[in-house]
Amino acid sequence: MKRRAIRKRVMLKPESYGTPEDNFPRITIRPEQRHTITSPNQYKKIKNSDVYFKTSEFEKTKNKICFVVGGGPSLNNFNFEELNGYDTIAANKSVEYIPNPTYFITTDYTYFLKASLTIEKIKQKTSQTYFIANMVPDYMQVKNGNVVDVRTNLIYKDLYQYTGVITSNLGKGFGDNISEFSHGSNSGHCGIQLALLLGYEKIYLLGFDLNSTGQSHFHQSYKEHDQTAFKSRANEYSTTLLNSLKNYKGTSEIINLSSSSILATSPHISTKSFSDVLQENNMHYQAPTIPTDNSTLDNLMVVGYYTVNTPYEKEAQNLLGSLNRLSVSHDIIGVETLGNWQANTRFKAGFMLDMLNKHPNHRLLYVDVDAVVHSSPDLFKNYTCDIAVRWQDFRWRKNECLSGTIYMENNERTRRICELWRDINVNEGNHSNRMEQWNLDTVINKMKADPNFTYKNLPPEYTMIFDSMRGMYPNVIPVIEHFQASRRFKKDVNKK
After folding, report:
1. Beta bridge partners of 389
2. CA 12 → CA 119, 156, 206, 243, 381, distances in Å?
3. All domains of the chain, ordered by start, with CATH?
4. Strand (E) positions, 70-216?
5. What pLDDT score does 496 carry?
6. Is the pTM here over 0.70, yes or no?
């Protein structure tokens, strides 16, 4: 039976999160500047739901090992499905990638301004969710059953949705009980502290790179200023964690699984490989039945994204409906608008790189969300090339590179394409008059210098534009048809 995987993620802007009274505050984070809170109604009546402050000790786990998963670039190309069946503590964004995380933890109140899953969605896929409130600064207080930043009277009023809120008055080290819960100013540090209190004998750290240079995270989902802000504090996070490990006197063994991590330089923590851990614990990963050849569509993943709170949400539903009817595996996500239509389209390059990392065992077929898949994309059975797009002659432009449908193998060459494509988009800026597909065309031409690089021109039925190309190919039956919603919605999106 054909394997079917349907994945859908939705990220909501703060103002769309439930009723107005339940909104996350809008907080602007700028490196080396004070955070700006733009939500003006902090004294609005709070929803009549109590925040559960976790003060009792955790029941000790019956399992011996767990994995605490951060966001470092050492997790590039990591197959998160290998964690299926094992206890996991997901810090921040990693919760979206782990199939069935046991715990979710964060100390970042602004996390859901950057996330792709709402707290409701996270609660559906995890057993327990915890927010760690850093109460070390004197401006952080608990008032009337709520965590409050008294500098600005910011009430952390959505915390009732977590399994529990832990108030932390310890900024370093590791505590022996919940009243001494240590936050370390970092969600990964919180994850280790939670694992210790749960009583795991062996605690394995994944994605704890903590490097201040290079790539900040394995995913491409955080905006540039978020990545910059993390790098500016990476040395602080690593110093705190290294000192905490140095002074830890408990019986649990904490093991780093990244050779590129700053932790690998410390004599106070051992470093191993993930494969070694599986072997020594007699852990056997049952790989999913995804064929390694291209003879079927079982290793093909249709991917795409839409901007939430715009008309593209409705367009995405049409695409999702067509994919569901055909039982085609897909991962269509919602993202917050970047401010204008041009910026939203330029997000495509980074998105594709993220999808290549997220689905390492799949070929990717990118489709714009204002399209519909009419029939099974059987062209891609026994299909081999690094990338395929449509080059189309129009009366207004010859040899136009169309990026509404993109086929990609999952390899180092396609990752390189996405990196180069992303960099050109970033350097030009989001207000450039150049189209992102022109930059893709530039990159493909550059890649032709590699003798191992292969590409193909997609047939018109896989990139059919509903009016202009229908007229050019009246006898061609479209498989993927694009409806050019930007003609109708571009102005509305640019106003947001």
Report:
1. 457
2. 10, 18, 28, 38, 36
3. 21-280 (3.90.1480), 300-495 (3.90.550.10)
4. 88-91, 103-106, 128-134, 140-143, 146-149, 154-155, 164-168, 202-206
5. 52
6. no
